[in-house]
Amino acid sequence: MNVREATPADTEAVIALFEAMEWDRPWPRPEIGAGHLEGKLVLVAEDEGEIAGFAFGREAHHGHAHLQVASVRPESRRQGVMTALLKEFAARAKAAGSEHVTLDVDTTNDVGRAVWERLGFREYSRRLFTTVEQIEQHGSEPAGESRATAYVQTDDVEAVEAAAAKFMPWLGGSGARVTGPENGWTAVRAELLDRDRHALERLASELSNATAAVVCTLGLEDGRLVRYVLYERGSVVDEYQSVPEYYGPVPPGDVVALGANATVVSRVTGADPARVRAIVRTAASPDELPPAPELLQQIAELLGLSG
To answer: What pTM was computed for the model?
Structure first.
């Protein structure tokens, strides 16, 4: 296999492979043409005279290199083609003065994320989207109260304090308040957790791993939305959002997934499944549910948490 810079003779094969890639974005796919490649470093992996894969991007852009698109034919995968393309792109980037390489990957692309992570990439930001209509509906409304707590199902307060003190600085926070235990749960609160859901979720996963205990995050967002996430051995086992499409449309499967799983909730918290189904409901609008602070308190009491 040979990795080289593409020539005009390769354009048709590269575009065909580009067009064959899956598209999972909220907006229509733009028409793909040679213009996408202009001014970019385009590399191809050639195997027995056939293009097995390609990659293109900018080897020096605002102080770093950015890999815009990379793809390998299905029949050529797991043969080191992507690694070879990436190494050549990195070598060209280094020669151009770049020390870092970035790329974008869809959150739904689990296979792609796993590949990039194996190659050394790690997440440093998230790109969010919404519709113009959603901004028109919510943009002028004042933000409501947001607060959240991570509850660890343990009486070992010292272990929770030690874990929180270790992981909070990694997330950009400090000063976690650990209280309890109450009803078998030790609570962790911090200003960072109130405003940063991603930090809350990262901390909860780490606490679950560090203490080998079930962890439940419970929060109020924008004064109108209630969310909880249950973790076991560091992994999410159930997730609830009172209004699944509060922040915009999501796939039908995700709407269902954001409803409470009464069986799981009962198993890890001891809550009565019938009461879980009656209280932890979802709706198309916050107005179809009890006021969010009231709903949060109901859920907290159901799970044995200090709301």
So the answer is: 0.58
Sheet with 235-241, side-by-side order of all strands: 177-182, 185-189, 147-152, 215-221, 225-232, 235-241
> What is the C-alpha to C-alpha distance for residues 139 and 151, in angstroms, rounded to an integer?
32
Domain extents in the chain? 2-118, 137-303
Count of C-beta atoms within a 10 Å radius of residue 66? 18
**Geometric angle at alpha carbon 217, from 114 and 25, rounded to 5°:** 40
pLDDT average, residue stretch 270-290: 94
Q: What is the pLDDT of residue 142?
A: 57
Distances 80 to 1, 8, 17, 118, 236 between C-alpha atoms, Å: 10, 25, 18, 12, 32
Helix (H, G, I), strand (E, B) or coil at 52: strand
Q: Which pair of tokens denotes residue 243? A: 């209004």
Tokens 């009172």: give the residue.
242
What strands, in cross-sheet order, belong to the sheet with 41-47? 2-5, 41-47, 50-61, 64-72, 101-103
Residue 140: per-residue pLDDT: 53
The alpha helices in the chain, defined as continuous H runs, are: 11-19, 81-95, 110-118, 132-138, 157-167, 191-195, 197-211, 252-257, 262-269, 273-279, 292-303
48: pLDDT strictly greater than 80:
yes
C-alpha atoms less than 13 angstroms from C-alpha of 58 in its C-beta half-sphere: 11
Q: Which fold has domain 2-118?
A: Aminopeptidase (3.40.630)
284-302 per-residue burial string, b: 16 or more CB within 10 A, e: under 16: eebeebeebbebbbbbbeb
CB atoms within 10 A of CB 207: 26
